[in-house]
């Protein structure tokens, strides 16, 4: 299963603005892309021939589906969906922290 990442890089669309501790209900999510240097961005005006969507492939057994299909509302996850996801995570792992995402927005690699 290929998943095109959505991320919140803040109003300046800068990879350092990614905050994994920011509550889901507060995130303004946009599709994530990377430029030829591998630097993440979300502004569609930056897309050019050298850009690519940030897509990661997973096997079915690697995924936990917490909520059904939903639409973002003005780039935000609806509050009811956040509530469902939070409850599902607590039920699945009552004494542990939620898993950290395997992906974080990328910055330019040093040569």
Description:
- It is built from 1 helix and 7 strands.
- A 3-stranded antiparallel β-sheet has the order 5-4-6, with no helix packed on it. A two-stranded antiparallel ribbon has the order 1-7. A two-stranded antiparallel sheet has the order 2-3.
- A hairpin with a 5-residue loop joins β4 (33-34) and β5 (40-41).
- The termini are far apart.
- It has one helix at residues 79-92; strands spanning 2-4, 6-7, 30-31, 33-34, 40-41, 52-53, 55-57.
- With 111 residues, it is an alpha+beta fold.
- It is globular.
Short account of what is shown:
The protein has 111 residues and is α+β, with helices and mostly antiparallel strands.
Number of helices: 1
β-strand amount: 5-15%
How many angstroms separate the termini?
32 Å
Structural class: alpha+beta
Write the layout of secondary structure elements.
Layout (H helix, E strand, L loop, with lengths): L1 E3 L1 E2 L22 E2 L1 E2 L5 E2 L10 E2 L1 E3 L21 H14 L19
Antiparallel strand pairs: 1-7, 2-3, 4-5, 4-6
Keywords:
111 residues; alpha+beta; two-stranded antiparallel sheet; 13% helix
């Amino acid at each position: 299963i290929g998943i095109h990442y959505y991320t919140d890089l803040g109003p300046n669309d800068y990879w350092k603005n990614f905050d994994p501790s920011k509550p889901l209900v507060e995130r303004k999510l946009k599709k994530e892309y990377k430029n030829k240097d591998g630097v993440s961005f979300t502004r569609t005006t930056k897309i050019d021939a050298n850009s690519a969507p940030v897509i990661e492939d997973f096997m079915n057994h690697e995924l936990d589906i917490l909520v059904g299909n939903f639409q973002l509302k003005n780039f935000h996850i609806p509050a009811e969906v956040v509530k469902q996801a939070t409850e599902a995570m607590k039920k699945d792992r009552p004494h542990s922290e939620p898993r950290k995402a395997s992906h974080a927005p990328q910055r330019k690699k040093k040569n």
